[in-house]
Amino acid sequence: MAGSADWDGHPELLAVDSAPRPAYGTGSLADLLPTLAAGLGVPGMTAAITELTPADRVCVFLVDGLGWEQIKAHPDEAPYLTSLLGSSRGGTGTPLTTAYPATTATSLASFGTGLPPGAHGLPGYTVRDPATGGLMNQLRWQPWTEPSVWQPYPTVFELADAAGVHAAQVSSPIFQNTPLTKVALSGGAFHGRLTGEERMDLAAEQLAVGDRSLVYTYYAELDGAGHRYGVASDTWRGQLMYVDRLVQRLAEQLPPRSALYVTADHGMVDVPFDDEHRIDFDLDWELRAGVALLGGEGRARHVYALPGAESDVLTCWREVLGDRFWVASRDEAIEAGWFGPRVDERVYARVGDVIAAARDDVLIIASEREPKESAMVGNHGSMTPAEQFVPLLEVRS
Predict the structure, then answer these.
(1) pLDDT value for 6
(2) What is the distance between the alpha carbons of residues 374 and 284, in angstroms, rounded to a whole number?
(3) Over the stretch 289-344, which tens digit does the pLDDT of each residue have?
(4) Confidence check: pLDDT of 62 > 50
(5) How far apart are CA 180 and CA 66, in angstroms?
(6) Which of 4, 37, 125, 295 could hold 42 in an S-S bridge, CB 3.0 to 4.6 Å?
(7) Pairwise CA distance, residues 377 & 334, whole Å
(8) Under a CB-based contact definition with an 8 Å cutoff, are residues 27 and 96 in contact?
C-alpha cells in the first residue's frame, strides 16, 4: 500500500516514531530465557514476562521462521499448534515480539543472551565491522571475527549451568561449533541429532535428567522452505505440517513438572517479483549516491555513507523510500529504541548511518552483490506484525 498524499501532492513520509518498536523488557524474545531462568532460581535473572508460571523443567523449542500470523493463517496444516494458540504467553493468547531486525542472527543472540541487539551487538544480518571497515555477516560469521570480542556477554545457558541447572541443547550437529552458537547459545551440553524426531525424543530425555532442567531444541527447515518457495507454497505448508507433528511428539513425552514453550525467531512475508516491490540498489543511481556499504537485508537495511555524505544519503533515502519504509538516521533509530533501551559503545558504529525498515511488501535488493538473497521469495527483517510477532505456545505436564 502506498503512503497517503499530503496537501502538496507528495507521498506522506513515515515518521520514525510510528514504527512498532519491539516489546523489549516486557514481552520480547530477549525476555524469555531470563524469565524461565528466574523461575529456576538462577541468580541475577529477572522474570520480565510476568504472565509465565515457573516450572522445574523447561524446554524451549525454537522453530526458525514460525511466525504467529503464519500459524493463525494455516489451521488445517497446523491443527496441534492452532489448538495451543490460547496458551501463548501464559494463557493470554498473545504473541511475543522478536527484536529489530527480525532476523535469525539477531534473534538467536537476543534469545540466548537475554539482551537486546544494542547490547549483544548483532544488530543485523550484515553490519559494518568498525575495526576493518568491511561488512560482517553475523549469520555465517564471515569474515572471521573473534566471537568473544564481538559478543562478550555470557549466555543464559552458561549462567544456568553455573547455578547447577541441567542445561542442554539438542540441535543439528552442524551447529555445534559455529561462532553464532558460541556467542548466543553456549552453556551446558550440546547433543547433535540429525532428524527432527530424534531431537524431540532426546529433548524429552534431557528434561528428565535434572530436578531443574533448561533444554533448548531447534528446527531450521521451515525457514529455508519459506525463503526458497514462499509461505504460500505447498513446500512451506508441508514443512509446517511436519513441525506440527514434531511439537505434538515432544509434548506427549514431557516428564513430570515440565513446561514446553514453542517459539520462533521471526515470521515471514512473500514479496512479488516486480520492480514495484523489489527496488534494486545496484541499478538505482539515486540510492547508491554517497553510499560506501549496503548492509542488513532487503527489509531491514543498514546503509553506511561515505564520510561527510550522511545527511545527503538520509535525505535521498527518505525522499525515494520514505512512504514505504521507516527511514531513520542512526541516532534517530537508537533514540526510538529500535535496538533496545541502550546501544553499547562497541555496537554504535556497527549500526548504519541510515536505517531503512520496510512497512509495505517491498524489498531493497542488490542483484549484483547479493544474488542469492535477492532471489528469495519469502523475506523478513522489519517491524511488521507478520515478521515481528512470534508464538509462545505452552504445554505443561
Answers:
(1) 41
(2) 15
(3) 999 999 999 999 999 999 999 999 999 999 999 999 999 999 999 999 999 999 99
(4) yes
(5) 20
(6) 37
(7) 30
(8) yes
Distance of CA 186 to the CA centre of its chain: 18
Predicted TM-score of the model (pTM): 0.96
Dump strand ranges (E) for 48-201: 57-63, 96-97, 126-128, 135-137, 166-171, 189-192
Cα separation, 108 vs 88, in Å, equals: 20
The answer to whether 260 touches 391, Cβ cutoff 8 Å, is no
State the CB neighbour count (10 A cutoff) for residue 15: 11
To which residue does cell 549466555 refer?
A: 155
Instruction: Dump pLDDT digits (tens) for 238-251.
Output: 999 999 999 999 99
Q: How far apart are CA 136 and CA 76, in angstroms?
A: 40
Rounded Cα distance, 371 and 394, in Å: 39
Burial 94-106 (b: 16+ CB within 10 A, else e): bbbbbbbbbbbbb
Stretch 261-280: mean pLDDT, rounded? Answer: 98
For residue 204 the three cell numbers come to 524429552
Average per-residue pLDDT for the chain = 96
Whole-angstrom Cα distance, residue 77 to residue 69? 14
- At 364, give phi and psi (nearest 5°): -105, 100
Distance between CA atoms of 100 and 383, rounded to whole angstroms? 7
In the block, which residue shows the cell 533514540? 335
Give CA–CA dist 383/333, Å, rounded.
13
pLDDT at 162 over 90: yes
Report whether 90 contacts 394 (CB < 8 A): yes
Percent of the chain with pLDDT strictly greater than 70: 97
- Residue 213 Cα distances to 58, 254, 396, angstroms: 6, 12, 14
The whole-angstrom separation of Cα 260 and Cα 216 is 10
The one-letter code for the residue type at 187 is: G
Q: What is the largest CA-CA distance in the chain?
A: 67
- Only one residue has cell 505452552, namely 394
Query: 104-113 and 32-39 are packed helices; what angle lies between their axes, rounded to 10 degrees?
Result: 20
Residue 375, CA distances (Å) to 81, 100, 118, 151, 227 in order: 30, 23, 29, 31, 9
Q: CA gyration radius for the chain?
A: 20
CB 132 within 8 A of CB 304: no
pLDDT for 10 equals 56
Average pLDDT over residues 355-372: 98
